[in-house]
Each structure stands twice: as structure tokens, then as C-alpha cells.
Amino acid sequence: KQEVTQIPAALSVPEGENLVLNCSFTDSAIYNLQWFRQDPGKGLTSLLLIQSSQREQTSGRLNASLDKSSGRSTLYIAASQPGDSATYLCAVNPGNQFYFGTGTSLTVIP
Amino acid sequence: NAGVMQNPRHLVRRRGQEARLRCSPMKGHSHVYWYRQLPEEGLKFMVYLQKENIIDESGMPKERFSAEFPKEGPSILRIQQVVRGDSAAYFCASSPGRGGLTDTQYFGPGTRLTVL
After folding, report:
1. Distance (Å, rounded) from C-alpha B33 to C-alpha B56?
2. Strand A104-109 relative to strand A10-14: parallel, antiparallel, unpaired?
3. For a Cys-Cys bond, which of A106, B4, B46, B108 suits B34, CB 3.0-4.6 Å?
4. Residue B37 CB contacts under 8 Å (≥ 6 apart), including other chains
5. Number of Cβ pairs < 8 A linking chain A and chain B
6. Residue B100 in 3-state DSSP?
7. Cβ B42–A101 below 8 Å, yes or no?
């Protein structure tokens, strides 16, 4: 059964720092992996989608990498801002559904 | 193009009542997924539907829960005889279906169900 783990569970950094969020999954047979952002009491915002054949995707200050064989993905956030404060969720799709991690709660301190 | 719409956004029910959650997928999307987020837990898959068909309901509780996606109208997640443990955020997602299993899913804002 696919299990997704995100480390750390919570992270607090001063504004301007670069940071890395980690995601690991137990079954490498996936079609894609997606990073989401969730603000308190709100829905999910898709940040980056990486297909299984890809190594990384970039959008603005965000860069996500995927190492399917080792079951790992990282989300790199450059020059963090207070507006980046949210919970970041990693989800893998082995077909028909996403398996989600429990998220990393990020606080960027002004 | 409007995103995935869910209503109501907040729903309060007393134990034993029925809850009906609605999801309108993005225009042109024919696949709908329902997920549940229990307090302090991650999102868990419940069911995957295409128009008039349930494709995968492996995450649905065996009793009291049902889902449909009719030819016309929104997808409905129905919870009969709600209990306090059903209190959660229920998210709907949709995908176009053209890319098959590589499709991304677009999520709605969720319905927060509170059972008193």
C-alpha cells in the first residue's frame, strides 16, 4: 500500500531564507506527483505537477524535483516570503487517485 | 473558466440526519474524485466517478456513504444518518479525462461538515 511521508511536519524560517520540503513515498509505481498548498480552512492550490518521466518542474520561486526510483521528491522555495506561510502537501498518483502526505506547516517570519 | 465548485461550503447536521454535498466539475471535465480530510489527518481518497459510472470506490465507508455523478448536474456525495465522526472537510476534484492516468486533478474549496 502506498504511504507518503513528509518531513518536517512543521518549519519556521525568517523571511528571505531558501528552504526545502521533503516528501517520500513507498511505492515507486506512480504516474505523477503533485505539490499543493493549503491555507487554513481553505481548499488546495496546485503548485507543481511532475510526471513520472520528468525530473523537475519550476514555477517562479518554486522548484520541485522527483527521484522516482528512490521514492523521493523535494520542494525548494527560494527567497521565502510571509505570504508563503501555509501547509504544503505532497501527493502521488499511482492511478485513479492521489495519496497524500500529512503536510509540512510552514511559517515565514517577517 | 470557473474552477471546481462545491456547495455548501459549510454544513451543520445533527446526528442521524442526512448530509448532501455537491460538486460541479470544471467545464469540460468528465471525471470527479471525492476526498475526506479528518481533523489532524491527511486527505484520504474516497471515490472516483465518471459520468453515470463509479470507477473506484475503494475508499468509501461500506455503510451510510454513497456517491453519484449523473449525466446532467453535479456529483453528489450523500451521507445518511450522520455521526460525529463524519465531521470533516470533504474535497472534490475533477480532471478532463483526456490524459488518462497522467491527468492532474483540480480541487474545489471543500465542504466543511460539522455533526452536532
Report:
1. 9
2. parallel
3. B46
4. B43, B44, B88, B89, B90, B91, B110
5. 55
6. helix
7. yes
